[in-house]
Amino acid sequence: MPGLADDPIFFGGAPLTVAERVALGKAARRKAPRSSHAAFAAAADRPDPVDLLERQADVRVPELVPIRYGRMLASPFTFFRGAALLMASDLVSTPQSGFTVQLCGDAHLSNFGLYASPERRLVFDVNDFDETVPGPWEWDVKRLAASMLIAARANEFPVADQDRIVLETVREYRRWMRKFAGMRNLAVWYTHFEIESLLPDLRARIDPAMRRRLDRLVAKALRRDSLQAYAKLASKVDGTHQIVSRPPLIVRLEDFENIGERDHARADLERMLHEYGATLQHDSRKLLEQYRLVDVARKVVGVGSVGTAAWIALLLGRNGRDVLVLQIKEAQRSVLEDYVGASEYASAGERVAAGQRIIQAVSDIFLGWFTVDESVDGAGRDYYVRQLRDWKGSAAVEAMNERALTVYGELCAATLAHGHARSGDRIAIAAYLGRGDAFDRALLGFSRAYAEQNEHDFAALADAARTGRVQAVHDL
């Protein structure tokens, strides 16, 4: 009788050899030459950008949509942050090598940041997954590269510095993908970027002013937990712990004017805790059961997410200092699904949570999801849940100088390569990229062209606001 060594079992099917995967990567250069990624020109039948944004608005909370437009109109960079749908519609016609990874789906530089691992270590990684789906790895890299150039332009850096920032960002992605290609599977999976070990190198590469900003960012992140969230967002009124309303950005459920809407939402959210808890690992579920829900409020978040149904929930444990603040965020259909096919998950909330766990080296122990079959407006809604603040921190890109933005871009690229290496064929992708800078220079060309397109789209939304086609409310 043969043993396993004689008749091996491969859980994902019989794997290709390293040599075969390298050959696939090099062969893909014939299908999509690395230099071909430099090209971008708007299609003759490209949809009107404002039409696409208004299409998204149809499934969002109507009174919040003007806030979204106002935030997007703060600058071409903030516009880019909210324009994932527009870029998705453009990327579908760009060259593809044929290798699929779990995409972040919206990999601009502000969707990376600090957060706490379950082991209470401060780590850096991708931290936004609303659009995550499997798709071409190039799409995430192009969105990151374009965001770097647009941010550098917004900071009014010289053109030579703008170019260098993009080139070094893409080079770092390529370098790390090659590094991951040479590692064992488990070593890739266990890799994570802890700030404590990164800090000496990061501090050595930036000037004293940027070092002080970095130190303040890390110190601030370590203070951003549920207790800090409570201090900022809630208070004790007549012996009751409650979230403080700051309409329209934060509206406590009890302050909703429509009594029917309030009661319906309360019933949904109370039922949610039970359904959500079932999606957690057993130990996290036991921990959640030690808390009780005391208040809920709707909260406007981000730029691209403004208008989706997002809530914060205040929970208490053994006493008033034992606080847990959860973010309950609506998950809609990914903007990429029109171009890569429908998600395998029936729930968009599960799609987000599953994608996050695949891409991130370590994830929030309270990450889960639930579905409301019929919400206040009669439509079903999917949600995902996570801690609102758990040592979360994000860099102020507009305050960075050229060197700091370069270093930050390299860190974003390294973590993006890690997410792709965990979920795709890192060996084939590394072989496709190669040792030279052909792909890096191609993406610089793409980023220049796409930054120009972004400027045109920004101007189109500004014109739509000026003429009254859309209403934009600038941040309150």
Describe what this molecule looks like in 3D:
With 476 residues, the chain is α+β, with helices and mostly antiparallel strands. The protein folds into two domains: 30-222 and 395-467, no CATH class; 226-387, no CATH class. It has 18 helices and twelve strands. The strands form four sheets. A six-stranded antiparallel beta sheet has the order 7-8-9-10-12-11. Helix 7 (159-181) packs across helix 17 (426-433). It starts with 17 loop residues before the first helix and ends in a 9-residue tail after the last helix.
Question: Rg, please?
Answer: 23 Å
Mean pLDDT: 92
Number of strands: 12
Distance between the termini: 74 Å
- In DSSP terms, counting alpha (H) and pi (I) runs of 4 or more, how many helices? 18
Uncertain regions: pLDDT < 50 for 5+ in a row? Answer: none
Compose a concise summary of this entry:
By secondary structure, the protein is of the alpha+beta class.
What brief labels describe this structure?
48% helix; 476 residues; two-stranded antiparallel sheet; six-stranded antiparallel beta sheet; alpha+beta; 2 domains
